[in-house]
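note to self — DONT lose this again. spent like an hour looking for the file last time. sequence + predicted structure for the chain T wanted, 86 res
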Amino acid sequence: MAPFPPPPLPPAVDCDEAACLLPLVAVIELKWLAAGVGQHLHVERMQHDALYARGVLAAAATSSSGPLRRAAARLDALLDAGPRAA
């Protein structure tokens, strides 16, 4: 599996979760599954930075872990659907 993108930038300004790109619970699931294969991701950046999120999801899609690949595919579909409605 390719390594995830480089360490995170400083966190973005807080927003309410409805304005975030991805739901927190799904990002946390991905974070723990990624940790299981030795990868680290930055939760806030996943929710605010689409380019970073796409890089993480692309790397996770190549994992040998089936659960990690499936979680990445679910988040990728949400990211492709566009901004979340409030």
